[in-house]
Each structure stands twice: as C-alpha cells, then as structure tokens.
Write a structure and sequence with these properties.
The protein has 237 residues and is α/β, with parallel strands linked by helices. The protein has a single domain, classed as 3-Layer(aba) Sandwich (Rossmann fold), CATH 3.40.50.10310. The chain has 8 helices and 4 strands. The chain has a 4-stranded parallel beta sheet with strand order 2-1-3-4, with helices on both faces. Strand 1, helix 2 and strand 2 form a beta-alpha-beta unit. It starts with 9 loop residues before the first helix and ends with a helix.
C-alpha cells in the first residue's frame, strides 16, 4: 500500500532543510465499482512520493476530502465547500512559511478542485512566488502521451485508463475486479457543472479503465516527476 502519511520527524525535516513543501490534495468520491473512494488521494500522494525520490522536499499529509459536488449522486462521496478548501490550503501555506519552508506546491489529484487555481493566483499576488499548483493540464497531457496511453483527458475523465494505471503501479491491491469491462463513453458534457456526473454516466465511470496497466502508471509518474524537476530548475535560473 502506498504511504499516504509521512513518518518523518522534526529532525528529519531540520536535516533536509527543504525549501519546498508538497501538499497532496485528493478527494473522497465514487470511482465506479472497482476503484476506492480514496483514489484521487492515492494519485496525489503517488505523485508527491515520486517527486520526493529525487528532490529534497518536505512531504505534508494529504487533504483527503475536497470539492466533489459533481459526484453527489453516488453513495460514499463526501465534499467540503470551495471556501473551506481555500482556507485550509492558505492556512497551511502560511504555517509552513512561518516554519522556514519558502514555497508550497499543491499537488492536486482531483480535477474538480477548480478553486485551487484561484488559491494559487491570489496567494502569489499577495506573497510573491510562494505557492504553485502541480500538475497542470499540459503536464497531465504529456504524461498520458509519453506513457503510451490511448485516451485523452476528455474521453478518459474519471476512473479510466489514467487512474487505473497509476493505482496498479503504486497500490495494485486496490483496484477490484471489474475494471476490465467497465468502459463508458459520454461524449460532450455541456452541463456537467450544473447537473453533475449523474447526467452522463450510470456507472460513475467516464473513460476506458480496461486499457489501464501498471507499466503505463509507472511511466506517467516518471514523466510527472521529471516535469516537476524541470520546473524547479527553471525557477531557480
């Protein structure tokens, strides 16, 4: 099982002297009948852990409930308001800065957390380059392509090839039987924000989970870690 909570001590962090803290943000929402409610949290933590293998970063424990209102039609989903998520992230950013960590990277594993872009934008307007969001849309697109995935973000929106692949790579015990036969195509979804996912899928899936493999998941994580490295190097020049 992937580590979701760091076991580092205060001495570990003092010796590491990291200038960057990673805050994984997941969700607690339906992912069909075969992926756990914590899927997005596992994905965010997997990205953060992959980055930590090669970068001196401080790992924070994940935010495990976020803005999942579009999944309210399915039992098991839990949400907080965008205002609450906004306040949690900004207060954590303030706290780590007081302890000497200069920059907070919000590692977002849930596409429905639209407010995080506003959090970063407004925080940096006040405090300078003290917060950023990762991965961005381009990072995800590149990870899919370079990992050999057959789908894109629109056709594989939820509980599909990408998420199954990452879970198979880092926590192969979590996906249950059934994803091999759970593909669901939804076409255009113009009223998603108003009517939620329930208007476009009966199963809670939009994507092609049958295409998921552990090799694709490992490759995607490697691509994301490299993208993070390049971004840090660029910021330091």
């Amino acid at each position: 099982m992937i580590d979701l909570i760091t076991t580092a001590t205060a001495k570990d962090e003092r010796d590491r002297d990291a200038k960057i803290a990673l805050l994984p943000v997941g969700s607690f929402e339906q992912h069909g009948d075969y992926l756990p409610l914590i899927t997005d949290t596992v994905v965010a933590c997997a990205i953060a852990n992959e980055i930590a293998k090669t970068h001196p970063v401080m790992l924070l424990p994940p935010i495990t409930v976020s803005c999942s209102h579009e999944h309210a039609a399915w039992r098991g989903t839990a949400s907080i308001s965008s205002q609450t998520l906004y306040r949690i992230v900004t207060e954590i950013a303030d706290s780590v800065r007081r302890s000497g960590v200069e920059h907070l990277v919000v590692v977002n594993g849930h596409g429905g957390n639209y407010v995080l872009s506003n959090v970063v934008q407004e925080y940096t307007a006040v405090h300078g380059p003290a917060m950023s969001l990762f991965p961005l849309t381009g990072d995800w697109d590149r990870a899919r392509s370079d990992a050999g995935m057959e789908t894109d973000a629109h056709s594989d929106m939820h509980a599909g090839e990408l998420e199954v692949s990452i879970l198979l790579a880092v926590a192969p015990n979590l996906p249950r039987k059934g994803f091999e036969n759970a593909d669901w195509s939804a076409g255009e979804r113009p009223h998603l924000l108003s009517f939620g996912m329930g208007a476009y899928t009966k199963s809670g899936v939009i994507g092609k989970p049958s295409l998921g493999t552990s090799d694709k998941g490992s490759a995607a994580l490697a691509v994301l870690s490299n993208a993070f490295r390049l971004r840090v190097e660029s910021a330091n020049h």
